[in-house]
Every structure is written in structure tokens, then in C-alpha cells.
Design goal:
The chain has 343 residues and is an alpha/beta fold. It has helices at 9-16, 20-27, 35-47, 54-61, 77-92, 106-118, 136-143, 167-180, 196-211, 229-240, 254-266, 284-288, 300-320; strands at residues 66-71, 96-101, 123-126, 148-151, 161-165, 186-190, 221-223, 248-251, 276-278, 295-297, 329-333, 336-338. It starts with 8 loop residues before the first helix and ends in a 5-residue tail after the last strand.
Length: 343
């Protein structure tokens, strides 16, 4: 089957014996156009299912009313909530959203940025991949005048607005909770070395141990690369089979925490009697695990709403002052501890 020909303003103009300028004015509902002429044009446009060409509009208006989003994964409970929040703010301001996924791959992240640029998005929202160690590809986009707002996993040395929670405080809060429950040998299954959220949670863990005069043991810290259930499971098995195993585990995410919980159960370690586990994000997987997982709440919906609002503000600012650079500013949203049966 051949591809159906796209209806254009020129085709409508030829059909009605009018100029393209007249058709364009009618479709934009200009008040100075004859009402009968306007109605004829609009009726035919509806009959032929005319759809404006967003790229042509972009060339005329210098904006596509479209923002791009890059997330490491889309099925993750946290990121699905972030997307809902972004859509709320975007639709409120008349913006469309193009969603892409990096799969935590630095090279794919770069290709997705290039794709969004070719789609002429007005700005980009991103939570960086676990492999991203530099900001070169972001700087190239910024140099082209495309505003960027980062959220959750960010690069602190890249100048842009960032939407975060206080990961340091969250990590300290999670570790202190284990200590308050009687744990003395606390392990941390942490995230990759580069993203700021993993760094903050790890430093919060260290701070809580130091405040309580508990030893910091290198062998009790495991570094994830994929940050998933399988890594939580395998690292917990390693930790729990040590001669003097931990009695508490702070996991970088709930997915990792539930993996650790399952490993403990498979090894016959009772939770919470012999081992207490706390995760991070307050996702559904932790709520339905057995026992339910204690966690640090991460407000994904609010993060998405705030990030989109800031980006749309940046787009408006760039439109009025094209030479103005994005200012680095961190927007920190509040979080809280949720205690459940795993601790």
C-alpha cells in the first residue's frame, strides 16, 4: 500500500482557488479575514484531516513546543512516576514530550541526545546513565542553545538546573535507622561511582557510621553497575557468607534491596531477626515484598513536575535572551523514612 499523501495548506488553497497566505490566516483564526472564507477553509481542513507540520512551524516560530526526555529505564517505578509529573507540567504549558531511553549506556545516551536535537526539541530533561562520567555531549547540545535540566542522577560539574533530593541526608537517615534498630555491622550495596545520587547516599552511609563510632569496612561496600535485583541478590549472598556477616544492609534502591532480601531468605537468614534491610525510593516492589521493605521515600512525581517546569522556564528565557547561559542551581525536594517489617 502506498503512503497516503500529506495534506498541505497549498492543496487546500488550490482546491478553493485562494492564496496560501489566506489559508494560513484562516487556520490561525485571524480576525481580519472574511468570516465566510474562513469557515470554508476551516471546514475543508477538517474534512481532509489537515495536520499542521510541526517542523514547518518550528522554522517560522523558532519553537516546536516539544521537549525531549532521556531516562535510564522506563519500567522502573520511580521513573514512571517522574514521567507522569513531567507530562503534567508539559501539558499544562502546551508542550509535547518525546521520551527516549539510554538503558544506562553512555553511547546510546549520546545518540539519543543527537536524535532529540534532530527533532528540534526546545529543551531536554535527563537523568544520566550509570556509565556517564563526563559532560562533553551535553555541552555540545547546550552550545547549540538547547536548554538542559538534569534530575535524580546528575553531573555536578555541568552547568544547568538540577532537581534532586538530599541523597546525603537520605543515606544517613537509612543507615541511622539500621543503627537505631540495633545493627552494628552495616553493609552498603551502593550505586556506580559517577552519578551524584549514588555518591550522596554512600557519603551519608559513611557519616552515620562515623557519628556512631562504628567501623567502616571496605569489604562491606559493594558497587553496582546495573543497579538491579540480580546485583542485590548476588552481592547479598557474598556478604552473608562472610565469616562475620553484616546484620544490616542499606541498598541503593528498593530493587537492589528486594534482591538482597531474597538472597537472605534463600540462605536461611531471618529478616528482620538476624538481618535488617532498608532500600531507597519507596517503589511498589518494596511494598509487596515479604516482609515489606523499609525505605527512603523519593518523590518521583514532584521531581518530574519541577524539572519540566524549570525547563519550560529556561526555554522561555532562552527565547528572550538567546546569549544567556543556564545558571547552575540545585532544587532539593524533601524526603522521609518509611519503616516497614524488614527492619
Amino acid at each position: 500500500m502506498s503512503k497516503k499523501k500529506r495534506i498541505t495548506q497549498k492543496m487546500i488553497a488550490q482546491e478553493l482557488g485562494l492564496t496560501v497566505t489566506t489559508v494560513s490566516k484562516a487556520l490561525k483564526d485571524y480576525p481580519d479575514l472574511n468570516a465566510n472564507t474562513k469557515k470554508k477553509i476551516q471546514d475543508l481542513a477538517r474534512k481532509w484531516h489537515y495536520i499542521p507540520d510541526s517542523h514547518s512551524l518550528a522554522l517560522r516560530n523558532q519553537q516546536t513546543q516539544t521537549i525531549g526526555l532521556i531516562v535510564p529505564e522506563i519500567v522502573h517505578f520511580f521513573f514512571s512516576n517522574v514521567i507522569k509529573g513531567i507530562l503534567h507540567s508539559a501539558e499544562e504549558k502546551g508542550y509535547q514530550l518525546i521520551i527516549t531511553v539510554s538503558r544506562n549506556d553512555r553511547k546510546l545516551e549520546e545518540r539519543q541526545l543527537e536524535l532529540l536535537y534532530t527533532q528540534q526539541v526546545d529543551g531536554v530533561l535527563i537523568s544520566i546513565s550509570n556509565e556517564t562520567m563526563d559532560s562533553n555531549h551535553f555541552q555540545l547540545l547546550k552550545n547549540q542553545g538547547v536548554p538542559i535540566v538534569m534530575f535524580d542522577k546528575v553531573l555536578q560539574d555541568f552547568e544547568c538546573k538540577k532537581v534532586l533530593i538530599d541523597d546525603f541526608k537520605g543515606g544517613e537517615m537509612a543507615t541511622q535507622h539500621l543503627i537505631d534498630r540495633g545493627c552494628q555491622r552495616i553493609a552498603h550495596i551502593r550505586g556506580p561511582l559517577a552519578p551524584s545520587n549514588a555518591i550522596g547516599r554512600y557519603q551519608g552511609y559513611l557519616q552515620a557510621l562515623a557519628k556512631n563510632n562504628l567501623p567502616i569496612k571496605e569489604e562491606f561496600v559493594k558497587v553496582c553497575s546495573q543497579v538491579n535485583y540480580d546485583e542485590g541478590y548476588s552481592f547479598a549472598q557474598e556478604l552473608l557468607q562472610m565469616p562475620n556477616p553484616p546484620d544490616g544492609i542499606f541498598a541503593i534502591t528498593d530493587q537492589v534491596g528486594v534482591g538482597a532480601l531474597r538472597a537472605a531468605q534463600d540462605l536461611g537468614v531471618k529478616v528482620p531477626e538476624d538481618l535488617k534491610i532498608i532500600g531507597f525510593s519507596n517503589s511498589q516492589i518494596g511494598q509487596v515484598s515479604n516482609p515489606p521493605l523499609s525505605t527512603i521515600h523519593q518523590p518521583g512525581y514532584e521531581i518530574g513536575k519541577t524539572a519540566a517546569r524549570l525547563l519550560i522556564d529556561e526555554i522561555s528565557l532562552a527565547e528572550n535572551s538567546p546569549q544567556m547561559d543556564n545558571l547552575t542551581e540545585n532544587y532539593i525536594l524533601s524526603t522521609k523514612l518509611i519503616s516497614r517489617a524488614s527492619t
